[in-house]
Write a structure and sequence with these properties.
By secondary structure, this protein is an alpha/beta fold. The protein is 34% helix and 17% strand. It is built from 13 helices and 14 strands. The protein is globular. It comes from Pararhizobium capsulatum DSM 1112.
Length: 417
């Protein structure tokens, strides 16, 4: 049987609305996500799907520029693909890791569709039929059209958490912090933990704290039912110093995102739980390899979210399905979205879990009408400044941060107009 050969690649940037703008330590998602959808065509008529964060004309042009690397390539040859696209020395000059991830997603999708098997059977065979998720909670600005959705106070955050728990069945809850002063967020986080009862919690200030502030915060939450304390400060040495002064596991998706950093963390431990992101690590297979290393050295793992639509969510589900050492629930921004570009609309949570797709390849397909709608919306609105907060003109983040948002400032409607 003749194997498929890649004949073309095309990329389409979309922007899909969120319920409300999501604030984080570096800025905000301004009421929507921007993603680039990648389609890899073959000579047998199979189209593989991939996805990457961000985008626009530059991303579309960057993927188009890789056409000469891909035309004639056998999508089964995934190791050759890795070196073609992101050879580690060549990548000093052309950081293509995330682009490679999107293309690898598409190649695995092609392989699965060609063989008539789901992606999880290509990467090891599934250990579970569904993957559990934590609610992903954010401080939010109000929706610019309705004025609804703001999360600034403990009461508003608890309302958001309990609503998501009721609707989706979450039993673990993650707060993205690093927006307001640490003392304020400490009080809010403790109120959240109290409100969700026996559910577990986790806190992530996106490395905004000094080592000393991170240690103070850790001392203030050690009595809670924490899964882990995620990226309290920046850098392996900073994380190591915090780790020496707390009894909680520390997690990261910022300072261990490749194998060299993973090796360093094993030789001189700084982080206990490695959050595997199918985009940041450069693909599903890299995450499977990293998980095996973590299994060998008894490091915890979880599946990280980078603001996915349904195509990347499918890669997270297939990854989660095959990992024997996955004991923590995964992250997902997914429930903050109001729509998706896949056929059937957004995937559903049941009991805090999402079923792993069982169709060939990634098991999802593009809704062409939705793709067109949200591609047109991107052309109308353009991108947004991820590392800026629209409610604080002129502000920008530093590491560590010292210029926090004021929790007493009631956000005004229309700031994103």
């Amino acid at each position: 049987m003749k194997r498929p050969i890649i004949t073309d690649i095309r990329a389409t940037t979309v922007t899909v609305p969120l319920e409300a703008p999501l604030r984080h330590s570096n800025g905000a998602h301004w009421g929507r996500f921007v993603r680039t959808i990648v389609e890899v065509e073959t000579d047998v008529g199979i189209i593989g799907l991939g996805e990457m964060g961000g985008g626009g004309e530059s991303a579309e042009a960057a993927f188009a520029a890789l056409k000469s690397y891909l035309v004639g390539h056998d999508p089964f040859e995934l190791e050759q693909l890795r070196f073609k696209i992101c050879n580690p020395t060549a990548s000093l000059y052309n950081n293509r890791t995330q682009m490679h991830a999107a293309i690898e997603f598409a190649c695995i999708d092609i392989i699965g569709k060609f063989l008539g098997i789901p992606a999880y059977d290509i990467i090891g065979g599934k250990m579970r039929d569904e993957v559990g998720f934590a609610s992903y909670l954010f401080f939010r600005l109000p929706n610019k059209d309705t004025g609804a959705g703001e999360v600034r106070t403990a009461d508003q955050l608890i309302e958001q958490a309990l609503s998501l728990k009721k609707t989706h069945g979450f039993t673990a809850h993650k707060l993205k912090g690093g927006v307001f002063p640490p003392g304020y967020e400490l009080e809010v986080y403790r109120e959240l933990a109290k409100a969700v009862g026996t559910d577990s919690v986790r806190y992530d200030p996106n490395a905004a704290f000094t080592v000393e502030e991170a240690v103070r915060f850790a001392k203030g939450i050690e009595d809670l039912n924490n899964d882990y304390f995620e990226d309290p400060t920046w850098g392996l040495n900073g994380m190591r110093r915090v780790r020496e002064n707390t009894h909680m596991p520390l997690a990261t998706n910022t300072v261990v995102v490749n194998f060299e950093q993973l090796a360093t963390n094993i030789l001189s431990p700084s982080c206990d739980v490695i959050l595997l992101d199918t985009t940041f690590w450069g693909g599903i297979r890299a995450c499977v390899k990293a998980a095996a290393v973590c299994e060998t050295f008894q490091l915890g793992i979880a599946v990280h979210s980078s603001g996915e639509l349904g195509i990347q969510l499918a890669t997270m589900l297939h990854l989660g399905a095959v990992l024997p050492n996955l004991v923590f629930t995964a992250d997902a921004h997914y429930h903050q979205l109001v729509d998706d570009i896949i056929i059937g609309g957004p995937m559903k949570y049941m009991g805090g879990k999402i079923a792993v797709p069982t169709g060939p390849g990634l098991g999802v397909e593009i809704d062409r009408e939705k793709l067109g709608t949200y591609a047109d919306l991107f052309k109308t609105l353009g991108g947004y400044l991820y590392d800026r907060d629209p409610s604080r003109p002129g502000w920008f983040s530093t590491v560590p941060n010292t210029r926090w948002a004021n929790p007493d400032d009631v956000s005004a409607d229309g700031i994103l107009a």
